[in-house]
Amino acid sequence: MRIAVLSGKGGTGKTFVSVNLACAAEQSVYADYDVEEPNGHLFLNPERTVKAPVTVMVPEVDMGQCIRCRRCVDFCKYNALALVQDKVLVFYEVCHSCGGCALFCPAKAIAEKERAIGSIEEGESGNVTVLTGCLNTGEASGIPIIKGLMDKLPKDGDIMIDCPPGSACVAMESIRAADYCVLVAEPTLFGVHNLSMVYDLAKLFKKPFGVVLNKCLPEENPAERFCVEHQIRVLARIPYDEELGRLNSKGRIAAREDKRYRALFERLLEALRKEAVS
Amino acid sequence: MKVVIPVESRSLEAPVCPSFGRTPFFALVDTDGGTHEFLDNEAAASQGGAGIKAAQALADCGAAALITCRCGENAAQVLNAAGVKMFKAQDGSVNDNIAALKDGKLSLLTEIHPGHHNHGGK
Amino acid sequence: MKQLLILSGKGGTGKTTVASALIALSRSRAFADCDVDAPNLHLVVSRMSEPEKADYHGFGKAMIDPSKCVRCGQCEENCRFEAIRDFTVGEFECEGCGVCVEICPAQAIAMRDHVSGELMLYRDDQSVFSTAQLRMGSGASGKLVTAVKKQLAQEACDAELAIIDGSPGIGCPVIASIAGVDMALIVAEPTISGMHDMKRMIDTAQHFGVRCAVCVNKYDVNLANTEEIEEYCDSFQIPVVGRIPFDKTVVQAVNRCQSIADYPDSPAGKAILSIWKNININFIG
Q1: Which chains touch B (3 or more CB pairs under 8 A)?
Q2: Which residues from chain B sit within 8 angstroms of residue C182, using beta carbons?
Q3: If both were cysteines, with which of A228, B122, C25, C33 could C276 make a disulfide (CB 3.0 to 4.6 Å apart)?
């Protein structure tokens, strides 16, 4: 089953939940779709890694063929081309790779070439195959990398997708192929506010979903109240644990080091299998 | 020569607009002939690359110099290729800056910022 | 107007916690929330009246007129974003490039304005607060961030200091928020993830030529990591303006819609006051 783990808010525990779920399964794939700040690999420390660049197509203008008609400059919605002193300038970082300039050039003077914007690294960590997407600094959009990761996912088996925070286009792209969404929430006003956003997102995409309440304190939990009010299934309640925080700060995986957490995540996995079936 | 200055409104007494790519208007002043006109900045409505589009428009209208508060690196690339000299604007109106230019009091714009990159692009 | 931007790279390190406290302590009359994807600042700044709202138009999106469509399929074939299926343009996939509009032999496709979010402006006689909410699944977050900053500059032009709560990550909304700021305060946490992301954040900020300073939040969770962060910053000559201990008072404050500055005797409250004094003397003045 393909599980997408999202939260709306950063720092609630997406990576914690997705990494530990991957470790609790017999065999699984962990895919890090938070390509701006991928973190899963810091815990899983994959070995035998292979890295491949992710490229996008950008225009290359042959000034020998160019008739200076400016059709490309005028067409481009992103203003990625300019014609100055008889030369066409191309601005790669604003190019959206739509292919329009090459398509519509009357002199067929524009070809497209590949340009690297990031990478995907594949490796093994015990029972987990680790896929890490990474966007180069200065690049605006991670969508092509997420699409690349999507292509690498196996058809079957357990796949944990660690999604980017928020509910904008990158988050949306991440849940497209998921069978089930796990929404992770922390017990603060911020947590609830952002939980409601990913709740809306999951509903919009008609994905079945459930909530994991993380860092639970003895006091009243606004996120739990939200779940009750909206009749959302709570899959697990993970109490706030200082020791866990310390373990996490050192990049250690709870399910691999602590029997209680292993059991917790095995139970969660079971609950998810039941959910995915029904 | 033709000098261009981003301006908040269609008036030579109006202050220089702090933005280049998204200024609402450009004042185009002919310092030799003493004439002037105002250009609507169509780049202001762009979803991205506004600086590039604005710079293209200035290159097209034959500007020899630009007086501006700031300029991004992509726009600067276009302007440099077009041979447009960039000067740093001082506090004050368009007229104040034209006068300062004529008196040789304006310095060249050397700080080119990396751009606002607000093309969204998902 | 001087601009101080609060960033982190990693989410959940405490940007909004720090930003809201600095806003209170500095008595700033201009502040903004540039985390347009998941804005939170409005939950913890002093209560203001109803905001002025304005629709925000991101990219135009293509729309196919079924009455003109001859179902040739050229649009779908040439769409690089896989946004066209069954002669319908998907709202979330379309990036407004215009290829389909141009290529359609029947001129059945046109670009339509698209509301991809909402700009909000809170105003009272003391201060101006600019923020926005991006609609779910939208792109053009960078442009909306720029709109938030522009709104702030326009409405609060006589304010001396503007404090801006940034968004997580290193992509376009962050890049857009960095432009034109005087200083970025990076909130770091002493965890492996936090340190990794802080480095990418510093890299990004320096790539765009912005002056940085760092503060370490929840520093006592891992002292060794905190020291590593401080050594790293030292080696790159990035000033470390303070350390904030882990403090449950912060959660209490947030859940009561307050900033930690309202708890000046708490460990976190004291630490943030010291950070503010440091920034004020050494960087703002």
Answers
A1: A, C
A2: none
A3: C25
pLDDT in tens, B93-115: 999 999 999 999 999 987 776 66
Q: Mean pLDDT, chain A, as a whole number?
A: 93
| Nearest-angstrom CA–CA distance, C83 and C140 | 16
Torsion on CA atoms C73, C78, C82, C86, rounded to nearest 10: -10
| CATH number corresponding to A57-116 | 3.30.70.20
As for the ipTM of the complex, it is 0.85
Residues C124 and C98 in one domain: no
Please provide the CATH number assigned to the domain covering A2-54+118-277.
3.40.50.300
Contact B41, B24 (CB under 8 A): yes
Confidence of residue B118 (pLDDT cuts 50, 70, 90): very low
Q: Do domains A2-54+118-277 and A57-116 have the same CATH topology?
A: no
Q: Which of C89, C112, C116, C192 to mutate to test the interface with A (most CBs of A within 10 A)?
A: C192
CATH number of the structural domain spanning residue C211? 3.40.50.300
CA A20 from chain centre, in angstroms, equals 17
Selected for mutation to probe chain A from C6, C7, C10 (highest A CB count within 10 Å) is C10
How distant, in Å, are the alpha carbons of A23, A262, C42, C111, C124 from that of C50?
48, 48, 11, 33, 10
Ramachandran angles phi, psi of C142, nearest 5°: -60, -45
A chain contacts of residue B122, beta-carbon cutoff 8 Å? 141, 143, 168-170, 173
CA C208 to chain B, closest CA, distance in angstroms equals 6
What lies within 8 Å, CB to CB, of A75 at 6+ separation is A100, A101, A104, C98, C102
- Distance separating alpha carbons of residues A48 and C114, to the nearest angstrom: 46
Among C38, C6, C13, CA closest to C197: C13
Contact: A168, B122; criterion CB under 8 Å:
yes
Residue C154 belongs to domain spanning: 2-57+119-284
What length does chain B have?
A: 122
Task: Sketch the domain layout of chain A as residue ranges.
Answer: 2-54+118-277, 57-116
pLDDT at C172 over 70: yes
How distant is the Cα of C168 from the closest Cα of chain B, in angstroms? 15
Quote the tokens at residue A140: 């605006």
| Structure-token pair, residue C142 | 């960078």
A94 to chain B: which residues are within 8 Å by CB? 48-49, 52, 74, 117, 119, 121
